[in-house]
Write a structure and sequence with these properties.
Bound molecules: adenosine-5'-triphosphate
Structural class: alpha/beta
Radius of gyration: 19 Å
Number of helices: 10
Strand content: 15-25%
């Protein structure tokens, strides 16, 4: 592994409830270098909250503590809203499941791809457009100029997800968090988008946290895997060894891996007696 971009030690997240604080992420420690680290686990195991905490995107109700949360030279725990927003516009990027909810239907694609440049750089309009067209080309969209001038409604799901990736990469972030980035796409498109993310991660020297419920997919595209259950990390292993995982929990997740028939559904939550 290369020098870590992100280091998290002892992350705890809890929410207030009538019965007192409910702890949902417990003592999670992880590092991410220039590599793809997958976080897998059953529904509700704390994957998304962990990813959101890294980007400072949890609601104010969440109580977040950690003994260390650093991204490059930045101590994330000292950032105010302005600091987070600068970091999210340049150092880190988030890709969500469905471009339908992330792209604004009222604005042309070009404007949305350029947004981070508009907010976080002083580049003139002509250069912003050039960089946007270049990035649309890099993510494999044919006829970038036409896509640039289109509205999101004119795009297919796979094209929309490529536009999202272009918008997120335009400022060359060092860390991407992709939360179920392909679950809204069919199997063939999933592979295309993950192949693209993998090659861009390598080309730009980025780190990628891939949050996924699809262990088979993770075994093909990630370098390392962190397995979570009920807010805790239960196993860490190279992605290539997922099929031979030691813990019965991970083996259970592997056995329950989505097939064409279950595509789009979530992983089952295992009952208490499932051995960890
Ligand atoms: N705002 C909130 N208030 C209280 N509890 C929450 C809140 N957001 C999430 N949780 C709880 O925290 C736990 C972890 O949620 P999280 O979304 O991280 O799970 P996940 O592993 O990403 O699951 P999935 O695969 O279903 O997306 C869940 O039990 C969830 O109900």
């Amino acid at each position: 592994m290369t020098e870590p971009l992100l280091s998290i030690d002892n992350l705890h997240i809890s929410f207030p409830s009538d019965a007192g604080p409910v702890s949902v992420v417990k003592s999670v420690s992880l590092t991410v270098g220039q590599e793809i680290v997958a976080i897998v686990g059953e529904s509700g195991s704390g994957k998304s909250l962990t990813g959101r905490a890294v980007m400072g995107l949890l609601t104010r109700r969440a109580d977040v503590t950690a003994t260390r949360m650093t991204f490059q030279d930045t101590d994330l725990q000292t950032l105010n809203e302005a600091g987070w927003s600068r970091l999210r516009g340049s150092g880190m990027g988030l890709i969500l499941q469905d471009p339908k909810f992330s792209l604004n239907p009222a604005h042309r694609v070009g404007r949305q791809v350029e947004e981070a440049l508009l907010l976080h750089t002083r580049l003139p309009a002509r250069e912003r457009k050039e960089r946007a067209l270049d990035m649309l080309d890099k993510v494999g969209l044919p006829d970038p100029l036409r896509v640039y001038s289109s509205y999101p409604a004119a795009l297919s799901g796979g094209m929309g997800q490529r536009v999202m990736i272009a918008a997120m990469l335009i400022n060359r972030p060092k860390l991407i968090i992709a939360d179920e980035p392909t679950s809204a796409l069919d199997r063939g498109l999933q592979d295309q988008v993950l192949t693209l993310l993998r090659s861009l991660t390598e080309e730009f020297g980025m780190g990628l946290i891939l949050i996924s419920h699809d262990l088979q997919q993770v075994s093909r595209y990630a370098d390392r895997v962190i397995v979570m259950r009920r807010g805790e990390i239960v196993e860490r292993l190279p992605a290539s060894e997922l099929a031979q995982a030691k813990s019965a929990y991970t083996r259970g997740l592997w056995a329950a891996r989505p097939s064409a028939a279950t595509h789009g559904t979530r992983l089952p939550v295992f009952e208490e007696e499932t051995p960890a």
